[in-house]
Design a protein that fits this description.
about 280 residues; mainly beta; ten-stranded antiparallel barrel; 2 helices; 13 strands; elongated
Length: about 280
């Protein structure tokens, strides 16, 4: 993955040099491609009922010694503008963690209990695809204020295998057990985005996304706040950095799937961007 990021960054740099003769202002882009890397810190709790589900809410970092911090999180986004005030954006990033640990607490799984001291091999993958539409209420040479509406799609895959003393119908004996929890949650989000151009090449942006929903099947809330600053070293090439704070809690009660996810993370990021088409 590091090689891919380096190769893309070098390609963007070369393209930025080649197109340096054309001038694009901070709010005059038509299509922007961005790649970057995030350093993130996580807190994740999960409860899933059903076949091979966790019987109680578990903090995954504490129970399975999953890393709180992930140093290399690849990010990719595309933003397209049409008719001056309208934009469509797609952003993708994923968090992948695995660990080998010894349980420091008992874990109930449906009709059995895995005792403390058992060995656990765990894996947690979370993939995010964020699709948004933005309409600019205010847009001039210095400011752009827009409202956003979109779909935040989270795909969570958690697997853990146990080996040790397990209490079941036949009492406590050495055995093995597995947990496999999957969740795909498309969540509608709304928000605001504000950009300020300090100069023709230096742009600062702040965005806020929010979601809350309560039905018979799904309930939950999502808050995402991000801020970044970027500078156009060449007319079509930008480099920037920012900070993202995210908090999500979702409860699902649909058929055989009953579960709860509480997940939060925050972290800084660096990115490179390339304006592909002049408006």
């Amino acid at each position: 993955m590091k090689c891919v990021i380096v190769a893309v960054c070098l390609s963007l740099l070369c393209a930025g040099r080649g197109w340096a003769e054309r001038r694009i202002g901070p709010f005059d882009e038509k299509v922007i491609l961005r790649v970057g890397n995030m350093w993130s810190n996580h807190d994740t709790s999960l409860q899933v009922s059903g076949d091979k589900g966790l019987g109680i809410g578990i903090n995954l970092e504490d129970a399975f010694d999953l890393d709180d911090e992930i140093a290399n999180v690849f990010q990719f986004s595309v933003i397209g503008r049409f008719k001056q005030r309208h934009r469509i954006g797609v952003q993708y990033y994923g968090f992948n963690r695995d660990s080998q640990s010894t349980l420091n607490q008992e874990i109930p799984i449906e009709d059995i209990v895995v005792e403390a001291g058992a060995e656990a091999n765990s894996k947690l993958n979370i993939q995010i695809t964020d699709v948004s539409y933005q309409y600019s209420f205010i847009r001039d040479d210095k400011h752009e204020l827009s409202g956003t509406a979109g779909l935040f799609w989270m795909s969570l895959d958690f697997e853990v295998g146990f080996r040790g003393m397990i209490e079941g119908e036949d009492g406590i004996q050495e055995d093995s057990a597995e947990v496999d929890a999957k969740l795909n949650a498309p969540l509608p989000v709304f928000g605001l985005n504000y950009g300020f151009a300090a100069t023709s090449r230096w742009l600062t942006q702040v965005s806020f996304q929010y979601f809350t929903l309560r039905t018979n099947l799904v309930s939950g809330a999502l808050v995402k706040v991000s801020a970044d600053t970027r500078y156009y070293f060449w007319d079509r090439f930008e480099v920037g950095g920012g900070l993202t704070i995210f908090d999500l809690n979702v409860n699902v009660d649909s058929g055989d799937l009953k579960g709860k996810v509480d997940w939060s993370f925050w972290g800084p990021q660096l990115f490179l961007g390339l304006s592909l088409i002049h408006i």
